[in-house]
């Protein structure tokens, strides 16, 4: 089992000089806590917080690693935080103050005028650790955060997986798959697209049903069951449901899973849809986005434009008239006359 650790990091603050600390612990820390076994380098796994800044800036979440070492003072730890922020690798250094309670740490942020009280509440040192952090700003605002750190985003303990999915996943999560190098560009962060107006139409692209689709997908791409994977990300994806002949939205954790995992509904449909979709009724779905798409009308034998609501519906929706006609075998009037002459 890979070693796992939760560090004492709160996304709302940076770590500077210490201030006053409440005398009574707010949480029970890990029994027989052993600090020496937690020193070293560890990786971000998951986080949740009611900090307003973090909830507002979820797309700016920090992912990376943190290294804790003994300092010259017996009462503090040196911290080196290497993180990827919006695609750029950065380093922050600071210190944690030890307390009389083993497993309880303290730091202060001058920038945010905040005191942070952190507790290692669960750990077995070799597999996981979970930390709860209480932050109080000078003007009285209080927030609570939970952090889980580990080495890579692989298979955590079952109870940790359950805990995070119930307590953390529903709120926020970030993960990292490798070290970043300070000053270097990291992987391009997910693009935050502006919310489209409800009357906006999808771009009309003249293409066949299979154009520009990945060529390395296996047979399971359209038949495997929906799989979120073991990691704790929150990525909107689509999977094909062969029974409903439709692509359904789900939240992907960010690692593993299977090939029935598409970034867009369009990619999903154009990869997995069968000719049987042409016999389905036009279904705009329950949403109100009013996107202009095309569907095959079995009664007239022609492809007609319709307004798609933007969610649900079925596989009888195409992104251009040409795509619909090619897929459903529609013969245009002019083509029919040409065939009769010949």
Topology at a glance:
Elements: E1 40-49, H1 52-56, E2 63-70, E3 76-85, E4 88-98, E5 104-109, E6 114-123, E7 129-137, E8 142-150, H2 158-167, E9 235-241, E10 246-252, H3 265-272, E11 291-297, E12 302-308, H4 321-328, H5 333-341
Antiparallel strand pairs: 1-2, 1-8, 2-3, 3-4, 4-5, 5-6, 6-7, 7-8, 9-10, 11-12
Signal peptide: 1-18
GO cellular component, one term: extracellular region
Subcellular location: Secreted
Keywords:
serine-type endopeptidase inhibitor activity, 8-stranded antiparallel beta barrel, Factor Xa Inhibitor, disordered C terminus, Lipocalin, about 10% helix, glycoprotein, 5 helices, signal, 12 strands, elongated, two-stranded antiparallel ribbon, mainly beta, single chain, about 350 residues
Structure summary:
The chain has 342 residues and is mainly β. It contains 5 helices and 12 strands. The strands form 3 sheets. Strands 1-2-3-4-5-6-7-8 form an 8-stranded antiparallel β-barrel. A two-stranded antiparallel sheet has the order 9-10.
Structural description of this entry:
- This protein has 5 helices and 12 strands.
- The chain is 12% helix and 30% strand.
- The protein has 342 residues and is mainly beta.
- The strands form 3 sheets. An 8-stranded antiparallel beta barrel has the order 1-2-3-4-5-6-7-8.
- The chain folds into 3 domains: 1-191, Calycin beta-barrel core domain (Lipocalin); 193-206 and 275-342, Factor Xa Inhibitor (Irregular), CATH 4.10.410; 210-272, Irregular (Factor Xa Inhibitor), CATH 4.10.410.
- Mean pLDDT is 71; it is low at 1-19, 152-159, 165-178, 186-215 and 336-342.
């Amino acid at each position: 089992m890979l070693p796992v650790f939760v560090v004492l990091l709160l996304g709302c603050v940076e770590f500077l000089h210490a201030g006053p600390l409440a005398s009574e612990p707010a949480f029970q820390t890990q029994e027989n806590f052993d600090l020496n076994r937690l020193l070293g380098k560890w990786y971000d796994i998951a986080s949740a917080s009611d900090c307003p800044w973090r909830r507002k800036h979820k797309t700016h979440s920090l992912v990376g690693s943190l290294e804790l070492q003994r300092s010259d003072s017996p009462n503090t730890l040196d911290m080196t935080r290497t993180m990827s922020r919006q695609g750029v690798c950065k380093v922050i250094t600071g210190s944690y103050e030890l307390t009389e309670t083993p497993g309880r740490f303290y730091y202060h942020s001058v920038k945010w005028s905040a005191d942070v009280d952190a507790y290692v509440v669960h750990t077995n040192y070799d597999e996981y650790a979970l930390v709860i952090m209480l932050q109080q700003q000078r003007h009285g605002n209080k927030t609570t955060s939970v952090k889980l750190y580990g080495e890579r985003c692989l298979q955590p303990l079952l109870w940790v997986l359950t805990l995070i999915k119930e307590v953390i996943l529903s709120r926020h999560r970030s993960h990292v798959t490798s070290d970043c190098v300070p000053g270097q560009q990291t992987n391009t962060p997910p693009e935050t697209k502006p919310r489209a107006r409800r009357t906006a139409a999808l771009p009309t692209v003249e293409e066949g049903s299979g154009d520009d689709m990945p060529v390395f997908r296996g047979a399971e791409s359209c038949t495997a069951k929906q799989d979120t994977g073991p990691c704790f990300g929150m990525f909107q994806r689509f999977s094909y449901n062969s029974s409903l002949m439709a692509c359904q939205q789900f939240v992907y954790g960010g690692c593993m899973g299977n090939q029935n995992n598409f970034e867009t509904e369009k990619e999903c449909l154009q990869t997995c849809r069968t000719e049987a979709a042409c016999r389905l009724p036009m279904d705009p779905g329950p949403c109100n986005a009013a996107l202009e798409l095309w569907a095959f009308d079995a009664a007239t034998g022609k492809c007609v434009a319709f307004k798609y609501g933007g969610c649900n519906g079925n596989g009888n929706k195409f992104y251009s008239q040409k795509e619909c006609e090619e897929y459903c075998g529609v013969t245009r009037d002019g083509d029919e006359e040409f065939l009769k002459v010949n």
